[in-house]
Write a structure and sequence with these properties.
This protein has 157 residues and is α/β, with parallel strands linked by helices. It has helices at 11-23, 31-36, 75-86, 97-104, and strands at 24-30, 50-54, 69-72, 90-93, 110-115, 141-144, 149-154. The model has no long low-confidence stretch (mean pLDDT 92). InterPro entries: DHFR-like_dom_sf, RibDG_C.
Length: 157
């Protein structure tokens, strides 16, 4: 990120991620991500049309129930709502607890991750507290960017 807050990436990373982001119609995220980003200030991120927020709490006061953010209780309901909203566009699911729950429900087709050379001493698991083993196929995309490795795996059925 530069001093203005603009994320700068290599041309290789841009060429990989931009076409994908252009295809995403709905993002499913948990309430923690929603709160941490301050609801993206009311505008879905990266040009996405809708965000489905999985939460047991009501929407924040003042959120338009007809707007681009949809608050639901449970991942199955979230996926159903996202399918309704996405049309022929891609549904992406944020990692973390919600991502792990959607993976455990068998509703994930592929996993994309970006590996950067940083080692944290603590943190959250990529898929939250998943309680079973889920096998992924060998990566069908491996792209070396500038200080990042972009990976894409199909979920083994």
């Amino acid at each position: 990120m530069d001093a203005s807050g603009v994320l700068k990436v290599s041309q290789t990373s841009y060429d990989y991620t931009r076409p994908y982001w252009d295809q995403v119609g709905v993002t499913i995220a948990g309430r923690h991500v929603f709160d941490m980003t301050n609801g993206w200030d009311g505008t879905p991120p990266s040009g996405v049309d809708h965000v489905v927020v999985v939460t047991h709490r009501p929407p924040p006061e003042g959120w338009d129930p007809e707007g681009s953010f949809h608050f639901v209780d449970g991942v199955e309901v979230a996926v159903a709502k996202a399918r309704e909203l996405a049309g022929d566009r891609i549904i992406e699911v944020a990692a973390g607890d919600v991502g792990g729950q959607v993976l455990a429900a068998g509703l994930i087709d592929e996993v994309r991750m970006d590996v950067v050379p940083v080692v944290f001493g603590s943190g959250k698991r990529f898929f939250g507290s998943v309680h079973a083993q889920y096998l992924l196929e060998d990566p069908d995309v491996v792209i070396q960017g500038n200080r990042v490795l972009h990976l894409r795996y199909r979920v083994r059925r």
